[in-house]
Amino acid sequence: MWAIAVWAAEKPGTDCSSCHDEGAKVSKSAHASVGCAECHLKREEYPHPADAPKPSCAACHAQQAGEHARSAHGQALKKGNGAAPDCAVCHGKAHETIASKTAEFHRAVPDTCGMCHGEVLEKFKESVHGRAVARGIVDAPVCTDCHGEHNILPPKDRASLVSAGRVPETCGRCHADVRLARRFGLPPDRITSFETSFHGLALKSGLQTVANCASCHGYHDILPSSNPKSMTHPNNLAKTCGSCHPGAGTRFALGKIHWVEGESEPWPVRLVRIFYLTMIPATVGLFLLHHAGDFIRKLVRTRLSTKAMRVWPSSIHPLEIRMYPFERVQHALLAVSFIVLIWSGFALKYPDQFWAKPLVLWEGQYPLRGVVHRVAAVVMIIAGVMHVVSLIVSKRLREHWYHLFPKRSDISEATGMLLYNLGLRKHKPRVSSHSYVEKAEYWAVVWGTFIMGLTGLMLWANNFTLRWLPKEWLDAATAVHFYEAVLAGLSILIWHFYTVIFDPEVYPTDPAWLNGYSVRQRHHTGHHAPPPPPPPAEAGAE
Fold first, then answer.
1. Any bridge partners for residue 518, and if so which?
2. Ramachandran region of residue 469, left (φ > 0), alpha (ψ -120 to 50) or beta?
3. pTM across the whole model
4. Confidence band for 37, pLDDT divided at 50, 70 and 90
5. In the chain, what is the straight-line distance between the N-terminal and C-terminal CA atoms, in Å?
6. Crossing angle for the helix pair 368-393 and 395-402, nearest 10 degrees?
7. Domains (range + CATH), the chain
8. What is the pairing mode between strands 517-518 and 320-321?
């Protein structure tokens, strides 16, 4: 009655309670502090004017009214569905509305939604969330925590809180909350481990068909993994994962699903990570030491010294054939496919980067990135097959290939050049025409192509892999594929690009990959050595 008394004081001689008995109800509702006249306009006179407008929730709750109008409920009302809920259905009559922030309102939400969604309500009540709500836990999620309050949209709408792309974000409101995790003993890494998995990365890039939290844990019937009826119970994982990956876990236990690198990762992944995180810095460090010393020496000799060479090496020595036409075709296929593979592969890992945008822009409608990556992989495999076949059928190419076989002298040449480049050796050692530089590049490509091809096929044929091998093997293949790509990319940037582009002896490029001939000065041996320059003419000769 307090609200009515206030309004009556403002309007002497006016007391709504003399005709209306809603006063007692209003005093206990969320609108207790709102005067009658604020909602019921043009009621100062009695009898009330016929054109007095009906109260509208939108007058005070414009934002909520707008969200409801755009929601699935509001659109259904607009189409003439009188059974679709409006404000009063969910909040009760205006004079009896309960404040939405109260524990009472929170606990009543499932039953309110269940008036229309009865089947869903029964599943929810049996779920881990529903049981928590029944126990009076106010932090337990109810319908509106996942679907929204007034802006409820169909799951197929990408703006919906329960659309495929936003499910991890919605679940993460509780499962990524450190405070809640500590309070209820929840694993704090579930969202993080999902986001770093293939499913999480693909979903982040925009692919809508990949599995999300609800795909594995369920929607309204979420149960603890310890419950035999849970979709994530160890006995049910084969069926759950098999809905997308037929045969998964039928021969071997799937193993860990959620794991974080460096913490709960499977042991094969740990071994892979330790190996590559040791090898990559060591290898790249040697590359940088070797090339830095070489660059400084050559830069001074060819560009900065007063006696610096002012002409191309080709004007002093005859050009040397280094790549035959068919080898240049193979190199072109390899180079293009490698660049596309690096671009499209890292676009999955880092979809938010500007250089990844052209590939992931269409992921919501079509998996462009994955198609581009696989096409490039097929091109690289074709180039590898072409290389092997050419060595079998062509004697000339096979004899050229023999020069790339490792020799014991390569070790002494590589060690001597490294010491010379670092200033620890006074005289430059003699280096073979096909030296450790080319051999390291070639055999690294052979090894990398084999490893990347094998792990890539395991990931591509993931259904077959999960049918015959434990999931840990697929996790290890994923780790190898990523780290090997990092190593390969750094090797090309630091080792190969220096020798063919940034080396002062050949800058801006050694044209062997274009026309087959190299301008680099080498110690020539064997049938690939260019003919010696003609002897100088004798004095007085005609």
1. 320
2. beta
3. 0.83
4. confident
5. 129
6. 100
7. 2-55 (no CATH), 267-518 (1.20.950.20)
8. antiparallel
